[in-house]
Write a structure and sequence with these properties.
By secondary structure, this protein is of the alpha/beta class. It contains eleven helices and twelve strands. The protein has helices spanning about 50-55, 80-90, 100-105, 110-120, 125-140, 145-150, 160-170, 190-205, 215-220, 240-245, 250-265, and strands spanning about 5-15, 20-30, 35-40, 65-70, 75, 95, 175-180, 210-215, 225-230, 235-240, 305-310, 315. The strands form two sheets. The protein has an eight-stranded mixed β-sheet with strand order 6-7-8-3-9-10-12-11, with helices on both faces.
């Protein structure tokens, strides 16, 4: 395997004072290879978006990285100055936010907002920047791109606004795009269109894309490797084929049952009993222990380590202490 483009090592993101801090993200590690479609999946509250914001250097002031390292192309992001981080963000790293209505400025046209990015990072003239924006609008499937250049965000549908956000992310030919719940609030047909668009652009441009989603079924066809998160910790990770065909963690199994139940049009959809605990009520041991049908006493007190099940497949569950592969 080649040198990772992005490497996250034992990342912990906390809120609160030293004496009463709560680890929202706790010891998470993963890597993204150049040109790779990579996925992070989990329910709301699993810490997915916090990881994305940490990578982009956009964490809210109340949250801090208390341990761990984020490396982009071998360079530690936390050590960069604010100016260097601003240069990296948008140029090398880009993000598609989950709600384009709030990410786009309502008082500027969509075209003008992309022109600003191109002039700031690429130094293009106004004329050249306009031509590039129109080209990008066409690339992401916005009809009559020259005519839509002067549209304000409110004049576009949700799907079109998300296409504008994808075009903005592509402006400076970044090496990594983080797509944070890019299909939120879109209907099922548009969701699939947006995912297919991102997958096509990933293949055409060679950009690495980190898909973040709560929808395991939606992501499953578009990623090469996937990491399943629960309550700020890793539950399972591996190749998409291994994780989706033979889920090993009880949480992943539950997500898969829910996805299959929806596809099979069952009268009563399967559910995972209970709710994700709030950060101030995280269990001492495995954070899934309060909802797990396979819970053991050790699970309630000691967080499980990552167990290797097969090449490229790991699960943080005590069930696999004696796991043997054929």
């Amino acid at each position: 395997m080649s040198k990772p483009l992005l490497e996250v090592r034992d990342l912990t993101i906390s809120i609160g004072s030293t004496a009463a801090k709560i680890d929202i993200v706790d010891g998470v590690s993963f890597s993204v290879q150049p040109n790779e479609p990579f996925g992070i999946v989990g329910e709301s509250g699993s810490g997915k978006s916090m990881i994305a914001l940490a990578i982009m250097g956009l964490l809210p002031k109340a949250l801090k990285i208390t341990s761990g390292t984020i490396l982009f192309d071998g360079k530690e992001i936390q050590s960069l100055s604010q100016r260097d981080m601003q240069r990296l963000r948008g140029k090398e790293l880009a993000m598609v936010f989950q709600e384009p209505s709030t990410a786009l400025n309502p008082v500027f046209t969509t075209g003008a907002q992309l022109v600003e990015v191109l002039r700031r990072h690429e130094g293009l003239s106004p004329k050249a920047a306009r031509a590039r924006v129109i080209e990008l609008f066409g690339q992401v499937g916005i009809p009559s791109p020259a005519d839509r250049f002067d549209d304000y965000p409110h004049q576009m549908s949700g799907g079109m606004r998300q296409r504008v956000m994808i075009a903005m992310a592509l402006c400076c030919n970044p090496r990594l795009i983080i797509a944070d719940e890019p299909t939120t609030a879109l209907d099922a047909t548009i969701q699939l269109q947006i995912m297919r668009l991102l997958a096509r652009l990933q293949k055409e441009t060679g950009v690495a894309v980190m898909f973040i989603s709560h929808d395991l079924a939606l992501v499953s066809n578009f990623v090469r490797r996937v990491q399943v998160m629960y309550a700020g910790r890793l539950a399972e990770c591996g190749t998409a084929e291994a994780v989706f065909s033979t889920p090993a963690h009880p949480y992943t199994e539950g997500l898969m049952r829910c996805a299959y139940g929806l596809e099979d049009r069952m009268e009563r959809l399967p559910t995972i009993e209970g709710q994700v605990p709030t950060p101030n009520r995280f269990p001492k041991g495995c954070r899934f222990s309060t909802r797990c049908a396979h819970v053991q006493e050790v699970c309630r007190h000691v967080p499980p380590p990552r167990y290797a099940l097969a090449a490229g497949h790991e699960s943080a569950c005590y069930r696999h202490i004696d796991f043997k592969t054929e």
